Amino acid sequence: MSTTVNYKGQDIAFVENDTKTLLTQGNYLEGDIVLTDVSGSDEDTLLLALRNQVTSVSDDTLTSIRSYGLAYMTALTSVDFPNLQTINSYAFYNDYDLVMEGWQFPKAKTIGNYAFRYCYGLTGEVTLPSTVTSIGQYSFASCKNMTKFVANGAITTLGTYTFVGASADHKMTMTECHMPNLGTSIALNLNWGSTTAANACQQLEVVDIGKAKSIAANTFANCYRLSTLIMRRTSVTTCANVSAFLNTPLRGYSSRTATIYVPESLIDSYKAASVWSTINGYGYVTWKKLEGSIYE
């Protein structure tokens, strides 16, 4: 007995006696696959087998990938979606070998929760297009080979645990994270740090949090190398607790020092503000005006 595999209305392959063989032609999205003569758990088994044979996916008409649309595709190494706008939750989750040096979706607008978690092939500097306004929780978590992240768009949504690792085997190596237009309603919460040291962005040196309104406890905890913080809000960005910078140079970790860039008119206000005054009192921070600096 053989099972017919139908893709977008056309029979493209046969799976005979569960041999787990798929001869694909062109694109592959699970929602377009129809299996005949099989159902239930058998169908799930075959669908998973089919997914694990696909190495490349391209579609110049695709504007949205549904949740889990290309997740767990262990053989997937390349994708090409030039008109993709919506990347839903878990879209590329656990695609370990998907090679994406930089960023390949020039029209992206929304990045869902866990969308790229464990995408080790996302390497080097990742610069999102200015069209991106929403980044979900854990969206780039455990992307351990991403060294720099830049989002110049007007980000209005930023989920928690955005860039954290998962264990010692999934440590982040990112050294810089720049989001200069992060919105005024953003409340930062554990986006880079963790009370579990192995999960934090331990290599992070420079972070630009734009106009974020607040920083929660442990947001940068165990970011051992964080030595440059840029804040652009026209009023003081509040900080919940000094634990936000636990084991960082802002609190003198390993006797290192740090520099904080803020609008010149706010330097004295920060030095007097709750929590910031305590951090200033540690004596490891130099406050500099944002205007005229390399980060202006």
Task: Please give a quick description of this structure.
This protein is mainly beta.
What can you tell me about this protein's structure?
With 296 residues, this protein is mainly beta. The chain has two domains: 1-54, no CATH class; 61-289, Ribonuclease Inhibitor (Leucine-rich repeat, LRR (right-handed beta-alpha superhelix), Alpha-Beta Horseshoe). 8% of the residues lie in helices and 24% in strands. It is built from three helices and 21 strands. The chain has helices spanning 40-51, 267-272, 276-282; strands spanning 2-7, 10-16, 33-35, 56-58, 64-65, 78-80, 86-87, 100-101, 110-111, 122-128, 134-135, 146-151, 157-158, 176-178, 187-188, 206-208, 214-215, 228-230, 238-239, 258-262, 285-289. The strands form five sheets. An eight-stranded parallel beta sheet has the order 8-10-12-14-16-18-20-21, covered by helices on one side. A five-stranded parallel beta sheet has the order 5-7-9-11-13, with no helix packed on it. Strands 2-1-3 form a three-stranded antiparallel beta sheet, covered by helices on one side. The longest helix is centred in the N-terminal third of the chain and has 12 residues, at 40-51. Mean pLDDT is 85; it is low at 1-30.
Which key phrases capture this entry?
296 residues, mainly beta, Leucine-rich repeat, LRR (right-handed beta-alpha superhelix), eight-stranded parallel sheet, five-stranded parallel sheet, 24% strand
List the helices and strands and how they pair.
Layout: E1 2-7, E2 10-16, E3 33-35, H1 40-51, E4 56-58, E5 64-65, E6 78-80, E7 86-87, E8 100-101, E9 110-111, E10 122-128, E11 134-135, E12 146-151, E13 157-158, E14 176-178, E15 187-188, E16 206-208, E17 214-215, E18 228-230, E19 238-239, E20 258-262, H2 267-272, H3 276-282, E21 285-289
Parallel strand pairs: 4-6, 5-7, 7-9, 8-10, 9-11, 10-12, 11-13, 12-14, 14-16, 15-17, 16-18, 17-19, 18-20, 20-21
Antiparallel strand pairs: 1-2, 1-3
